[in-house]
Amino acid sequence: MAMIAGMIEDTVAALDWARIEAELEGHGAVATGVPLLPPTDCAALAALYAAEAGFRSRIVMARHGFGRGEYKYLAEPLPPPVAALRAALYPRLVPLANRWAAALGEARRYPPDLAAFHAECHEAGQTRPTPLLLRYGAGDYNCLHQDIYGPVAFPLQVAVLLSAPGRDFTGGEFVLTEQRPRMQSRAEVVPLAQGEAVVFATRHRPVQGARGTYRVALRHGVSRLRSGERFTLGVIFHDAA
């Protein structure tokens, strides 16, 4: 685990965080630009989906009106690459999360490390891990939504594409929509390579307007797969009730 964590920490540290923060400030979503996981780790995580062990629940989207496809929430202990990604990404995103909270007039601030944030989640009764694996087949899609599981929520999250576009599947683009007050919704499509991640706003972000800062609501989803099979790792930092 120490070797995996060290490699992932080095990869995350080497990202262009100035660019990532600027894109998140301007658009609410940004691709990392480089893979966070090598193809071997992507394949190994995708292969876990067929197993019964290692998950706390399975959701079939069509049963709940979420779209088509399915996903499974991982159980503790998380697979080493997932735990390492969660631990390495969180502190890099905290400064922006706190700036957003201040801009929106929120009193809360996010602690600098993930363990302290999870202690806050657990105090609020949110004790279940939220990282998940998603599987889509031809014709599947994910409706626009927000991943909120209780009163405590981190304002940013990450999705890592585990499959290779063009080889494993076609279609299935990550989509984000943004609803500004008194304006029509704006859509953002973020193409990804295998192992690459998209960082995006969980629920809302601040936008500077002519009359000051206002709150913009965001939702994310996945467009319809045309062919093949697509696996994704969702890295959500807050736990669930």
Structure description:
The protein is of the alpha+beta class and 241 residues long. It has a single domain (2-235), classed as Sandwich (Jelly Rolls). The chain is built from six helices and 14 strands. The strands form two sheets. Strands 1, 2, 4, 5, 7, 8, 11 and 14 form an eight-stranded antiparallel β-sheet that branches. Strands 3, 6, 9, 10, 12 and 13 form a six-stranded antiparallel β-sheet that branches. Strand 9 and strand 10 (186-190) form a beta hairpin. Helix 1 (2-13) runs parallel beside helix 5 (80-103). The longest helix is centred in the middle third of the chain and has 24 residues, at 80-103. The chain is globular and about 50 Å long. The relative contact order is 0.22.
Short synopsis of the structure:
The protein has 241 residues and is an alpha+beta fold.
CATH topology, by name, is Jelly Rolls
Query: CA-to-CA gap between the ends?
Result: 28 Å
**Overall number of domains:** 1
Number of strands: 14
Q: Radius of gyration, rounded?
A: 17 Å
CATH superfamily: q2cbj1_9rhob like domain
CATH class: Mainly Beta
Largest sheet report = 8 strands, antiparallel
CA-based shape: globular
Helical content (DSSP H or I, runs of 4+): 25-40%
Number of helices: 6
| Strand proportion | 25-35%
**In terms of quaternary structure, what is this?**
single chain
